[in-house]
Amino acid sequence: MKEVAYVTAGRLIQHYGDFCLSKGIDFTRIPSVRPHDNTTLFCSAGMQQYKPLFSDPSHIGTVANSQACLRMGDLEEIGDGTHLLHFTMLGLFSFREMTIGNAIDFWLEFLATLGLVPDHVTIHPDRLMEWTPLYRGRVAIIADPECTWSDGSIRGYCTEFYKHGVEIGNIVNPLGTCIDVGFGAERLDMIVNGTPQDDALETLCETVATIVESGYRPGNKEQGYVLRKLLRRIHKMGGTLDHPFFTEEVERQKRLRAKYLRLRDRHAEMSPDWWFDTHGIDLAELGETLDE
């Protein structure tokens, strides 16, 4: 299932890249989830590397990309058919060149090449009168006061695209002068080709593979800790990976569990910090295995 899902999504990404190039827009494919700045552990959006350009009034231009993204905030939602944890974002970024109308035309045309017409779009009430005519009656419009976006000092209204009750992408208007578009490749593939995306274990395995391929190793901090957490969860769910990192983590958990069970009665009054500092045992982490 995983192979079919990501192979077909890969074809969609290639199709998007070809579409952008046909419009004279440079396209870059970025398979790594390494962040482009220090605000996140992993890249969470295709626009991350372009944030300085949004705020630079002297920069004018348009680019497109496909960016591998990872959002740990979606961890508890995977398996619901829409949240993927790791996904590829199809992005279009214009700095004081394209207008909202240009971006709407671009995306409706691209979606049409997939045989997809949105069921409806949403627009913030503050932009409803201005942006509604830009759709020229091609799709139903619903007002939504949640259609805003912010990244610190960069803010903007947005318009969101929906199909079968699922948001498939949005067009943001940062600072009122720029364009920031993001559409999820796997989510589009799910809708267009009916590719299943709701296997939580497959999602975890694919995410681990992407983190490892991005150059990270299991560890006690930051990206390494996230990787270790996902390896533990795969094991807890009864899954397996043919990779030494997985084997090492399973053995590490067994050793820590045995050590804790041997020492806990003797040090029952000690704090979680003491267990970690003295024995390298993270009680919160270990708690997932104590009932096994």
Automatic annotation (TrEMBL):
GO terms for biological process: translation. InterPro entries: aa-tRNA-synth_II/BPL/LPL, Ala-tRNA-ligase_IIc_anticod-bd, Ala-tRNA-synth_IIc_core, Ala-tRNA-synth_IIc_N, Ala-tRNA_ligase. It comes from the Bacteria. Its EC number is 6.1.1.7. Keywords: Aminoacyl-tRNA synthetase, ATP-binding, Ligase, Nucleotide-binding, Plasmid, Protein biosynthesis, RNA-binding, tRNA-binding. GO terms for molecular function: alanine-tRNA ligase activity; ATP binding; tRNA binding. This is Alanine--tRNA ligase. The keyword Cell cycle does not apply. Belongs to the class-II aminoacyl-tRNA synthetase family. Residues 7-242 form the Alanyl-transfer RNA synthetases family profile domain. It holds the Pfam family tRNA-synt_2c. It comes from Rhizobium leguminosarum bv. trifolii (strain WSM2304). Gene3D superfamilies: Bira Bifunctional Protein, Domain 2.
